[in-house]
Amino acid sequence: MEVVGNTCFSSSSVLVSPLTNGAFSLSSRAIYEKRSCNFTVFSRGIKSNKISCKSSESGIQENPKSKSGSGTKVEEYNTAMKRMMRNPYEYHHDLGMNYTLILDNLIVGSQPQKAEDIDHLKDEANVAYILNLQQDGDIEYWGVDLKSIIERCQRRQIRHMRRPARDFDPDSLRSGLPKAVSSVEWAVSEGKGRVYIHCTAGLGRAPAVGIAYMFWFCGMDVITLKCMALKQLNTAYNTLTLKRPCGPNRKAIRGATYDLAKNDPWKEPLENLPEHAFEDIADWERKLIQDRVRSLRGT
């Protein structure tokens, strides 16, 4: 059995299981290869698909069109993501759910597509909480049966939470981050298992919530996957995106940080401040942010 990294795909042809060091192993039915930020899935030894996370000088590189049954939807989604988020990465719905272990108690990934994905998260990744950032329209667009997923969560004793944010909209993300992080912080504090944060592709909203949580509440020792003191957004951002190549909106995270740390109603708007304002926070600002986020529990 080969250890190949910490990003895994769950589908009928790709089986994965977590190891104690945060990596994942694959069964003999599938081989997963990660080289130079290219993810290639092999099913029973036959190359089947590719996810490219290369970017051109302009920050965007087109991939060949998908030939799967949901190809048109995938193409439309990736086109919108590249245009509106300037995100050079792509979502491949036909490969099934994929996710990455970020902290020892935090996972960021794409949407569960069927009830069996919940069994996988429970049995293979020790997930006890799921935070869904999708709006109803996102779920309907991909034809996901959310009711069956929630029912399977209840059966498997997984707490399913929703904090919807509009896809490709940094203002919606900015306003929604505090409540989303409050759900993550509460779930982590409960300590009953890992927290799985997902949006549609796990490339925008979900990693932004993970980064904001790390920035506001902890950090990450990249060797042990344990929390440590952290005061810089850049450290949290790079830590997550090096593990899971993606392009969450940094400005939205800065904006939410500013909103929570603002202690003067007459304070100058963030837009008038230097470009890197609130990418570093003082201890008193961190304490104020934490208190305000915790006060949002249950809202």
Automatic annotation (TrEMBL):
GO terms for cellular component: chloroplast. The lineage of its organism: Eukaryota, Viridiplantae, Streptophyta, Embryophyta, Tracheophyta. GO terms for biological process: starch catabolic process. Residues 54-71 have a biased composition (Polar residues). SMART domains: DSPc. It comes from Escallonia rubra. InterPro entries: DSP_laforin-like (IPR045204), Dual-sp_phosphatase_cat-dom (IPR000340), Prot-tyrosine_phosphatase-like (IPR029021), Starch-Glucan_Phosphatase (IPR052832), Tyr_Pase_dom (IPR000387), TYR_PHOSPHATASE_DUAL_dom (IPR020422). It comes from the Eukaryota. This is Phosphoglucan phosphatase LSF2, chloroplastic. Residues 175-245 form the Tyrosine specific protein phosphatases domain. GO terms for molecular function: carbohydrate phosphatase activity; phosphoprotein phosphatase activity; starch binding. Keywords: Carbohydrate metabolism, Hydrolase, Protein phosphatase. Pfam families: DSPc. Residues 54-73 are annotated as: Disordered. CDD domains: DSP_laforin-like (cd14526). Residues 98-266 form the Tyrosine-protein phosphatase domain.
